[in-house]
């Protein structure tokens, strides 16, 4: 059955992967709604932009009047909400933008989704879904053992995590209070093609290529669970189609790594694929810097529920996904050079605390 997906934040890193998969691997239609902030890039959608099942609207999700008109015109079966400010360091420097987009924007979108859903009838009303895409950071920090599961208590520690936790709570409240058919997913750290180069993996790849220092916070002991973005996109579409209303699903890669080990793996791959005698071994570029304020020690996601209920498991291992990612950045220099020319040049963020 063909469905109409309205994807907010669809020009961003994860959103564009979802839209490329919707157009390339399903019969569904996709309308992207994106404000095109610094991290939104239509180049990530170039491969599907000529497809008649794809559409784009440049709009802020917090603009209720515009969103009302877009929803009424497109008549979505699924609203997949990915539009968000997402970088922890930027949230330390400027938390207000995160409250505006992640909290106020989600509230405004929920109101318009509810308004629209109430106009539906019959099977269309029954089948409609509001799918809210969130993060494992809402759960706070783990010790050396244990995993985040769907019932794990929320303990957000950064302004970014707090804003996403608030949006999660709003989504659940609109389900329990007003009956809006929602699903929530919380994912681990994504990586892969078109990742904005302020995040760890793309920043390390590009700095290694250019022979620049590789800044590692603290001693690099912080642990993250890594998920290849195309695996995540597949899971998100599956949840939107088959997930149970009112449920939440954790999506992770079962790939815990210390940050220092991630950086060393990148160094090895860049040395292999782009050797440079002037630079030498890229591990020599690793530089330990002052830690991020309030840096959570460890995230690890228990993705058993989505495997048990929906049959999803990631295809890529961390090793195979990281190799694909390094290869992509090597083959797409024009993309990341244009991104860097837009104002972000790899500088340290999040020091104002």
What does this entry look like structurally?
The chain is 42% helix and 16% strand. Mean pLDDT is 94; it is low at 343-353. It has helices at 13-25, 64-74, 88-93, 95-117, 122-127, 159-178, 200-210, 229-242, 259-273, 304-310, 318-331, 333-341, and strands spanning 4-8, 29-34, 54-58, 78-81, 129-135, 182-187, 189-191, 214-217, 223-228, 248-251, 256-258, 286-289. Strand 1, helix 1 (13-25) and strand 2 (29-34) form a beta-alpha-beta unit. It is globular, with a radius of gyration of 20 Å. Helix 1 (13-25) packs across helix 8. It is built from 12 helices and 12 strands. It has a 7-stranded parallel sheet, sandwiched between helices. A 3-stranded mixed sheet has the order 7-9-11. It has a two-stranded parallel ribbon with strand order 8-12. The chain has 353 residues and is an alpha/beta fold. The N and C termini lie far apart (50 Å). The chain has a domain at 4-196 and 227-253 and 299-316: Rossmann fold (3-Layer(aba) Sandwich).
* Main CATH class of the domain at 4-196 and 227-253 and 299-316: Alpha Beta
Question: Low-confidence parts lasting 5 or more residues at pLDDT below 50?
Answer: 343-353
Question: Sheet with the most strands?
Answer: 7 strands, parallel
Q: What amount of the residues lies in strands?
A: 15-25%
The CATH level-2 architecture of the domain at 4-196 and 227-253 and 299-316 is identified as 3-Layer(aba) Sandwich
């Amino acid at each position: 059955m063909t469905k109409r997906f309205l994807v907010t934040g669809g020009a961003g890193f994860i959103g564009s992967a979802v839209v490329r998969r919707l157009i390339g691997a399903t019969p569904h239609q996709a309308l992207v709604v994106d404000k095109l902030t610094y991290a939104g890039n239509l180049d990530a959608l170039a491969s599907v932009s000529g497809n008649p099942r794809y559409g784009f609207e440049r709009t802020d999700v917090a603009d209720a009047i515009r969103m009302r008109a877009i929803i009424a015109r497109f008549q979505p079966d699924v609203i997949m909400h990915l539009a968000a400010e997402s970088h922890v360091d930027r949230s330390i420097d400027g938390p207000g933008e995160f409250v505006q987009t992640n909290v106020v924007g989600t509230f405004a979108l929920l109101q318009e989704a509810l308004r629209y859903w109430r106009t539906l009838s019959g099977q269309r009303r029954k089948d409609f879904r509001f799918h809210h895409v969130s993060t494992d950071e809402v759960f706070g920090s783990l010790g050396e053992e244990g995993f985040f599961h769907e019932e794990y208590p929320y303990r957000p520690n950064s302004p970014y995590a707090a804003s996403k936790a608030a949006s999660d709570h709003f989504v659940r409240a609109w389900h329990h209070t007003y009956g809006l058919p929602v699903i929530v997913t919380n994912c681990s750290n994504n990586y892969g093609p078109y990742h904005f180069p302020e995040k760890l993996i793309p920043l390390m790849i590009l700095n290694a290529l250019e022979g620049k220092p590789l800044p590692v916070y603290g001693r690099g002991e912080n642990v993250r669970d890594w998920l290849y973005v195309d695996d995540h996109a597949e899971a998100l579409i599956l949840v939107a189609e088959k997930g149970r209303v009112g449920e939440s699903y954790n999506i992770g890669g079962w790939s815990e790594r210390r940050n220092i080990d991630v950086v060393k793996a990148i160094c090895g791959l860049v040395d292999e694929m782009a050797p440079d005698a002037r630079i030498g071994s890229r591990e020599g570029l690793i530089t330990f810097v002052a830690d991020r304020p309030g840096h959570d020690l460890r995230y690890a996601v228990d993705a058993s529920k989505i495997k048990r209920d929906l049959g999803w498991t990631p295809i890529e291992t961390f090793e195979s996904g990281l190799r694909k990612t390094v290869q992509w950045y090597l083959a797409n220099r024009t993309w990341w050079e244009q991104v860097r020319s837009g104002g972000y040049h790899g500088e340290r963020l999040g020091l104002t605390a």
